[in-house]
Amino acid sequence: MEPVSTDVVQQVAAYFSILGEPMRLKILNLLRDGEKCVQDLVAATATSQANVSKHLKVMLQAGMLARRCEGTTAYYSVTDELTYELCTLVCDRLATRVEQQAQSIRAFSLAPSPREG
Length: 117
Fold this sequence. Notes:
Elements: H1 6-19, H2 22-30, E1 36-37, H3 38-45, H4 49-61, E2 65-70, E3 73-78, H5 82-110
Antiparallel strand pairs: 1-3, 2-3
């Protein structure tokens, strides 16, 4: 296997860093149902327009989102459905881990105490 170039590694890391921001994940989740305007996203996230716009710009530049203007209103939509597949994989993995932890805790709580033995 050939070593991966530094440029490729940096590009992959940049993609994951975009998804590593909680507000961006909130925005992506809101866009799951279809395109939304900035005002709708601001209301749904209960944050400032400047904050939402900053995150939209980053995702737009990365090619994750598309923007459509209608008059003075900008609408955003997800261009790459793979983003949701990736999020589903991660959420499934996290859910599995939580379930395993819960089973371990239940097993511990059901173990007989030394006094009972």
